[in-house]
Amino acid sequence: MSLIFWTQVFLVALFALFAYIILKRRSYMFISGFATRSKEEQQQLIENGYPQGVGRMFLIIAAGLMILMPLGLTGFHYTFEVQMAFMMLVLFGGLIILSRREVPHKRKRSLLISVIMAVVVIGGVSALLMIGAKQPDFTFGKSAVEISGMYGEKIPYRDIHSVEMLDTMPPVGLKENGFGFADYAKGRFSVEGHGSSLLFVDMKQAPILLIKTTGRPVFITGGSAEETESWYRELGQRIR
Fold this sequence. Notes:
The protein is of the alpha+beta class. It has six helices and nine strands; from the N terminus they run αααααβββββββββα.
């Protein structure tokens, strides 16, 4: 079993455990900030249904993460990313909704803090996704070809053994250190038949350029089939 699988199991178990403790055991002290409230505020929060709402939110997250887990069995490579997006949406959306159950004099502040957190985190993650999915520049220098951007690499021509054009991308396995979302993969992944590889691949694009080097293989696609083919021809001339 992979590290991602056990991370998924851990998160499901963790949220389910907290949901059980809050909803069934009524141990509200596990809710952040609850234990430091005055007895009066704690009682008012309970009457407003605030801790119960937190417990239900954790239960929804646990159930959603578990329901999404089988996606990985279908060959979909970004199940974990989808799970994290679901978790963040439910978590921040839930906190915004639950701010209405705060004690009256803290509702506005709670709503403001929840909205700011949601904007900062979701906005930051969205920006990271946009940067990660940006098509890298493929530049031919005098002694090396350079792939710019996130996970970019400079590859000396002397280290390139061969270049090939593939009609389809070989099956991509475990993500070692990379970025994967929807049909785009960038960074280090395990690729069937090639081992640890560096990917800059839009799975919707064909063909795929495979660069075999003294280090790890590199798979890359251009903005169009014509661009990828032009890279193949240029590299072939450079390494002769």
